Amino acid sequence: MKTTPESIQRFLIGQPPPRLTRPLARVQPIQAKEGRPSVDVARLREVVRGAAVVEPVIAVQNPAHWERAVRGLGPEMDCILPIGVPAYPTEVWNSHPQPLVDRQLPFVFWSLIAHEEPDIWRWSATDYLRALGVPVHPVRNNAHGVALLKALAMRRFLRGARLVVFGEQNFPWNAPAAGHLFRESLGIEIAVRPISDFRARAAAVSEKDVEETWNARRARYRLGRVRPDGLREAIRTYLGIRAILEEERAIGFGVNCFGDLIIQGGRDVPCLAQLFAREDGYIASCDADYVCMATLALMTYFTGKPCLMSNLYPVRYVGALEDHFGDPLSPDPKKYPRRDWKNYARLGHCGFVGVVSPEMSPAGAVTLHDWGGTYEIKRDGRGCGIDGGLFRRAPVTVAEMKFDGRTLLLTRAELAETTRHPGMPHCESTALLRFSNLPAFVENISRDHATVIYGDHIGELQVLGDVLGLKTLVV
User: Fold this and answer.
1) What is the CB neighbour count within 10 angstroms for residue 55?
2) pTM reported for the whole predicted model
């Protein structure tokens, strides 16, 4: 069976610890009265297998029992699944709604499983309970319900999740100044550490540990122009960063290379560390952009698929590209007519498409070269950069969280090609994307950092945004 980009799952070298795995949603069914139940719980367990655990049914005996049952549910429970009697909505939650108002647990009216359609007899209860302040989620069909349960589990997963950013906070993604907005909205904590912290740990790594780490992972990596000492330094950097991630019990990291590391002459860039950390179950972003890191966390742990972040360059902005690359990187007008360029953009970061995970590449592997440099900061043969291409004509979803921690921007695009740029050592490759409406996306954009995932995930990400209380903007 041919592998399609949309079917690719993220690669994990082993079973990640629980803090790096979206938990199964915990669902408590409560049956309101005697009679034929509106939901077949046994069938529901099969439908949600792998996404949720459905607890034994609590059969309500009287209003006092109902109140004790609702108020007694623990913090590990993600939602209540009400089970009534079809077509006769005279249930206890209508007569005694106050426990739901006080408890504020999501109340999920499941669809008609056999018919894959909404249960219309729950319309009135949905609006009634919402008017009282109860978070009610009517399920449209089984696929929507599974996405909803995964989203509810994500909400619990994110509470208290930690990200680590290394380096000076001198870009707009300044964690001490604005990171609290993500704690307030999603529950994500952000720890700021100096680059010297992972360098100190990297320096203590033994040659044996470097060799063992490389031998365990080398099958997905091709050696290009990277120097042996550059490769060893990159592996030490990974092991140093991983030690801090374990210490912080974090889910991901980013290093502010251009604000701190590179401009001071360092080339111990964390590109390979990003890939190795992803294989362990972490997420990672360039430039210590915690907003992008939060986006990657949403996309990766919710979908289970690999993601890419990179700089987004609309090709119509020839001045900005000329200044940054010394070349506008215009598409071939024979293949891509100029009249369509308004909807094309390139992905590129530090000389290559970005830090492409091997499973996202058609080759199933990426090539390790020296760090690619930029037009302003010249390549000097040191460091370890990542050169990986992407699938042609692959549909993708492009996403950006905004700095407010409450807005998620989404759009669809297609990967047209991975373009090689001969004679440009600071820009060996970029990916060319065709958007459905790039100007409208740019009107709402937050940063030049975009997150890209294979496939169309707009619908399920809207479900996630709704559960997390985000304003989801779809272009």
Assistant:
1) 15
2) 0.95
> pLDDT per position in the chain (475 positions), as tens?
567 999 999 999 999 999 999 999 999 999 987 767 888 999 999 999 999 999 999 999 899 999 999 999 999 999 999 998 765 667 899 999 999 999 999 999 999 998 999 999 899 999 999 999 999 999 999 999 999 999 999 999 999 999 999 999 999 999 999 999 999 999 999 999 999 999 999 999 999 999 999 999 999 999 999 999 999 999 999 999 999 999 999 999 999 999 999 999 999 999 999 999 999 999 999 999 999 999 999 999 999 999 999 999 999 999 999 999 999 999 999 999 999 999 999 999 999 999 999 999 999 999 999 999 888 898 999 999 999 999 999 999 999 999 999 999 999 999 999 999 999 999 999 999 999 999 999 999 999 999 999 999 999 999 999 999 999 999 9
Two tokens at 12? 């994990």
Are 218 and 231 spatial neighbours (Cβ–Cβ below 8 Å)? no
Q: Distance of CA 176 to CAs 185, 186, 446, Å?
A: 16, 16, 19
- C-alpha 274, offset from chain centre: 14
Which residues, in sequence order, are bridge partners of residue 349?
352
Contact 82, 30 (CB under 8 A): yes
Cα–Cα dist 354/270, whole Å: 12
Question: Cα(372)–Cα(320) distance, rounded to whole angstroms?
Answer: 20
Q: What is the DSSP letter of 122?
A: G
Q: How far apart are CA 408 and CA 261, in angstroms?
A: 30
Nearest to 103 by CA among 76, 125, 134, 65: 134
R_g of the chain, CA atoms, integer Å: 24
CA triple 183-185-186, angle to 5 deg: 70
Residue holding tokens 């960063």? 241
